[in-house]
Write a structure and sequence with these properties.
This protein has 16 helices and 15 strands. By secondary structure, it is α+β, with helices and mostly antiparallel strands. The longest helix is centred in the middle third of the chain and has 18 residues.
Length: 562
């Protein structure tokens, strides 16, 4: 996993070492205030960690599993070595290496790294924490925990055709077709230390120790901690100040071989490696802590984190997620338009508000509760807006239709559940995107009317019909589900499967990050809503939802590779 820290200020002391830590990390490991249990970490079994438990309790505290049983986690056996890593990813694959003593970065081939790792004594203490190995031979050997796959926005909302179009196994930004941050291999020798940081974009992390040990300094997210973190980051004197001494709460966590950690969004942490270690992990964004993810994005803005160390396609993935939510609610019969809370196109506005207000406070008042209510006026959209069969609705009274909805909602067992955390997080995100023009430059071209999407989903989340279509209690069934996987064709099949009329073209400019586009059936339209730029609309080839097109032409606003 890539660090999100800004590069430290480097001073040349007469040709001597450019950077040296002025405090002893090992002494900090023994201080009582860090060692004592502050109740920040939960210990669960794999069977206890389910999507239903996340719907009930959220994902706010680090969770440790001493055994991988029941997690749905797949990793290689503990005998997996550096030679196996070299064989799987390729000996000539280049990796970013960090010198722990000087905090300088350098590039090494995997073959050079394996030779260094297996040599003793070592002159330098080097660390590899950003080897993303998806689309390599090691990809099939590692599978994240099942709950992580059920939460990950990349799995739920990113167009599968774009993921399939990814052919490069490296993490080169100009060749990336999706947020390639799901599978990392971390290789650290004894004595490595990664200073305090927050994972990019406020992403959560899964982390499994294949062999070795790790010691985490954990600082819970709070306004006080973030203010101190920003000051510490911008000071340029991280070498002289141990960040754990600057906050009121910091706990030490010891992970051993076979342990698995789920790190929630926004936790500030540092990592020390007492013995040689091999770790598998990955980053993921999800719907149960959207406000925290936006806060971290603002912290990255405030501390001027380089684009190289930020979550790739961060704004684009938010648009895909909102589109999936809206279309999924439409499938369930939650339309919102014409009901209380719907503002229409006039709510988009034309003037751009001041930047930097990512965290507009949203007073969520008079929201429909999650309990199923008796059918009443306004509980369902007008019949003309429903996608029900005309034969069914013809001649039926509005009250009978409402009763039919209520009965059908209870007939499905189980039904998807929209938690309070999801709803409030989506409302905060919509408010920031609508009023502060957040991610305005990252709209994928398959969303031709972005302002209308924001208005529609806002109305759907305020609709009383959502209570009838979604389970009032956590059911373990998510509202968003991943797109269906295509069936593999049998070998020797004489008849190839039907080919799509749409062709995927290569990126137009190799020097810029591009997303694939559909070459055929495209046309340029202009959004009727004020403030929406012209978009390229393409007909859907495969969609998780009816109105969602799968491929944007380009990711505007994404940084150039550094």
């Amino acid at each position: 996993m890539q660090r999100t820290l800004r590069p430290r200020r480097q001073v040349d002391y007469g040709g001597k070492e450019k950077w040296a830590r002025r405090y002893d990390v090992c002494s900090k490991l023994e201080e009582p205030r860090f060692v004592e249990n502050q109740g920040l970490v939960k210990y669960l079994t794999g069977e206890e960690f389910t999507l239903q438990s996340v719907q009930e309790q959220g994902l706010t505290n680090p969770v440790v599993f001493k055994e991988p049983k029941g997690l749905g986690l797949r990793v290689p056996p503990s005998s997996f070595s550096l030679s196996d890593v070299k064989r799987c990813v390729g000996a000539r694959r280049l990796v970013d290496v960090v010198d722990t003593r000087t905090q300088e970065g350098l590039m090494m081939s995997v073959q050079q790294w394996a030779r260094y790792f297996e040599s003793k004594p070592r002159e330098k203490i080097l660390n590899v924490i950003s080897l993303e190995f998806s689309h390599s031979k090691m990809d099939s050997l590692v599978q994240p925990p099942a709950v992580v796959q059920q939460l990950d926005w990349v799995e739920l909302a990113w167009p599968p055709e774009l993921k399939k179009a990814q052919t490069d196994s490296t993490n080169a930004l100009h060749k990336m077709m999706y947020p390639k941050v799901q599978k990392y291999c971390l290789m650290s020798v004894a004595g490595c230390y990664t200073d305090f940081h927050i994972d990019f974009g406020g992403s959560s992390v899964w982390y499994h120790i294949l062999w070795g040990e790790k010691l985490f300094f954990l600082v819970p997210p709070s306004q006080e901690a973030y203010r101190a973190f920003c000051t510490w980051q911008m000071s340029g004197h991280q070498d002289a100040m141990f960040f754990g001494d600057l906050v009121s709460s910091c706990q030490l966590l010891h992970l051993q071989s076979g342990h698995t950690l789920i790190m929630p969004s926004g936790w500030i942490h540092a990592v020390y490696t007492p013995v040689d270690s091999l770790v598998f992990g990955g980053n993921f964004l999800h719907s149960f802590n959207i406000p925290q993810q936006l806060r971290v994005a603002q912290v990255e803005e405030d501390t001027k984190v380089p684009s190289k160390f930020r979550y790739p396609f961060y704004g684009t993935v938010h648009w895909f997620v909102l589109s999936c939510y809206s279309n999924r609610l439409q499938k369930l019969g939650v339309w919102g338009e014409g009901e209380e809370g719907y503002e229409g196109e006039e709510g988009c506005g034309g003037e751009i508000l001041p930047e930097g207000k990512w965290l507009r406070c949203v007073a969520v008042t008079k929201l429909p509760g999650l309990a199923v209510e008796e059918p009443g006026d306004g509980a369902v959209p007008p019949a003309s807006e429903c996608d029900w069969d005309a034969e069914h609705t013809k001649g039926a009274t509005l009250q009978a239709m409402k009763l039919d909805i209520a009965l059908s909602a209870h007939s499905r067992d189980p039904t998807p559940h929209l938690s309070c955390r999801e709803r409030e997080g989506l409302l905060m995100l919509l408010t920031n995107m609508k009023q502060d023009r957040l991610f305005e430059e990252d709209v994928p071209s398959c969303i031709p009317h972005p302002c209308e999407l924001l208005e529609r989903l806002l109305a759907q989340l305020h609709s009383p019909a959502i209570n009838l279509r979604c389970s009032p209690q956590p059911s373990g069934v998510p509202l968003l589900t991943p797109p269906p996987k295509e069936k593999r064709r049998k070998r020797g099949s004489a008849q190839p499967g039907p080919r799509s009329k749409h062709k995927l073209s290569k990126p137009e400019h190799s020097g810029h990050t591009q997303l694939l586009k559909l070459a055929d059936s495209s046309k340029t339209t202009k959004c009727s809503t004020r403030g929406c730029p012209p978009q390229t609309t393409v007909h859907p080839q495969h969609c998780n939802t009816p109105n969602e097109c799968i491929a944007p032409t380009a990711a505007r606003g994404l940084p150039d590779p550094i």
